[in-house]
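Good day; I would like, with your permission, to put a structural problem before you. What I wish to show you is a protein chain and, alongside it, a tokenised description of its three-dimensional fold. I would ask you to consider whether the tokens describe a fold that such a sequence might reasonably adopt. You will find the record immediately after this paragraph:
***
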Amino acid sequence: MTDPVSWEGDTLANSLACASAQEPIPGAWRQELAQAVRDPAILWQELQLDPALLPAAQLAIKQFPLLVPRDYVARMRIGDHNDPLLRQVLPVGEELQLVPGFSADPLAETACGPVAGMLHKYHGRVLLVTTGACAVHCRYCFRRHFAYDELPRGKAWWADAVAYIAADPSIEEVLLSGGDPLTLPDVQLAALAAAIEQIPHVQRIRLHTRLPIVLPNRVDRPLLAWLTASRLQPVVVVHANHPAEISMQVVAACRRLRDAGVTVLNQSVLLAGINDDSHILEKLSQRLFAAGVLPYYLHVLDHVAGAAHFLIDDARACQLHAEMAARLPGYLVPRLVREEPGQAGKTWLR
């Protein structure tokens, strides 16, 4: 279970040479997701972690469960609590601390839902919270406290959401989010996309997903078939924070999307102890672009309760971004942004 792609070494060529790896068996990702690690004791055993830290993890998961696919675990370093992939999913005692300024709904999303299961925050686009399920529980997730259990399910809410979109000719883009929309069956996603396609003023469908990064076999033929079958221009925004996440399987998955005609973008979150180094961020942008993914946003941390230990202050964030910009071509430098409630769009920090 060693890291298959060393971000410190020059192994990208080897990854790209293997990017034409065998196409995944349709639906095989479901079994991989079913076998994901949910018990901290198993994670501790497989990665040979310090047992003294296990009790705190078992307390932390009572507020936010552990979930991480084994393919993602396999990219982590044995015995290293500071591994940048492990730290993204590792339950720790700091999550239980109450920190002023950190809340359960840092983006005030509960006030942005004109229809159940929908957020309409920005002009020209709406976001559908399609599911509360994910393939990985990132400990910094800004929706870790979201009331997913209160959402309507299936076509019961689709009808209202589609009717709302159809009634507003300013809406040109529909975002599918969650949770993670790619945890849903392709037949359900295809039906939703087909309903959206019938609305003449909608031009694009965008998926925000972590699955191509943590469970790359999800990018299979059934997914590509419905995603590219309609007149809607497909956009997939993946989420990688560190170059060690970009294994050869992830490269292959992103290239399958790109080769099918999908625009693939990446958004990251700036996280203390994980990617708060401009050289790491630079390598991430380079590795993503080599896989056919354009760096899009670099977010500062949303102030969600349980994630304060990941915070990097704005001055340091701007310094890191400036260092990146000094060494990379402009198209490889993601925009440094913050999302603020009530604003017309992302706030650019630099």
